[in-house]
Amino acid sequence: MNPYLNSHNQDLLAYAKEHKTKYKNAKPFPSIYFENFFNPYFLSSVVDEFPDLSKGNNIVYNDPLQKKLAGNGEELFGDKTKLLMHFLNSEPFLNFVKELTGIDETLFGDPYFSGAGLHETKKGGLLKVHADFNKHPINGLDRRVNIIVYLNKDWKDEYGGHFELWDEEMIGCVDKFAPNFNSIAMFSTTSKSYHGLPNPLACPDGMSRRSLALYYYSNGRPESESIAFKEGHNSIFVKRRDSEDDASAWTDFERRRLKKTLFAKLYQKVMAKLL
Predict the structure, then answer these.
(1) Which of 17, 47, 249, 270 has a CA positioned 20 to 30 A from the CA of residue 11?
(2) In the chain, where are the structural domains located?
(3) For the segment 38-77, what is each residue's pLDDT rounded down to a tens digit?
(4) Fold category of 7-242 in CATH
(5) Could you write out the DSSP letters of every residue in the chain?
């Protein structure tokens, strides 16, 4: 009996085979959403040890396109969190991901949790629609699949924070998943798999949207997925069509970027004169 999984998916390979057609045919790109995936008692213990990422040595994203928090690797993993995350990087789970997605190449987990691990978004936070970075920053492997484990008990729809999947033309949100406790969102990562939570979170003060993120990699990917971006790239943010909010955010973002560039040039000139 696997202590991490719920009773209905103890045989992971059989569970993957049962759902692989749904994953492959999902729109706007291969994806799936599972509810009650883990043993709820075990996952509750993971929730209990989740830290406040606004404190300590964590990563803070705070600009008009993203306002969120992330941990640094395993540094703040509690004992139960570490057990779960190691299982999600293990051979049995990698075989589940490979079977479900239909990926031919060998999949690798990421023991460094680069960009992954603990994620938290507080009230007013957001993550504009984007496609993810496509190469592992250390070993250069190709990023193929994302899994997000949601830890939010008593979450209400009016709080927002839904995981949104957008079409390539950025005309509309094709599907969205609620960040409810013991649910997971899983999707294939390409340079056109646009997703995010683009509207400010409206949860009560003192509450936050918390999740665990895992990314899976392969050495190479199909040519059909690599034509547009053969080289590595960082996150590619894209505007929603006819969105005044996005237009304002991009204007503010470019204004800040220009200000930083001008300041850097001025600093270089001043230092050159001093030296």
Answers:
(1) 47
(2) 7-242, 245-275
(3) 999 999 999 999 999 998 889 999 999 999 999 999 999 9
(4) Jelly Rolls (2.60.120)
(5) --SSB-GGGSSHHHHHHHHHHHHHH-SSSSEEEEES-B-HHHHHHHHHT---TTSSS-EEEEETTEEEEE--TTTT--HHHHHHHHHHTSHHHHHHHHHHHT--SPPB--TT-TT-EEEEEETT-EEEEEE---B-TTT-PEEEEEEEEE-BTT--GGG---EEEE-TT-S-EEEEE--BTTEEEEEE--TT--EEE-S---PPTT-EEEEEEEEEEESS--HHHHSS--S----EE-PPTT-HHHHHHHHHHHHHHHHHHHHHHHHHHHHHHH-
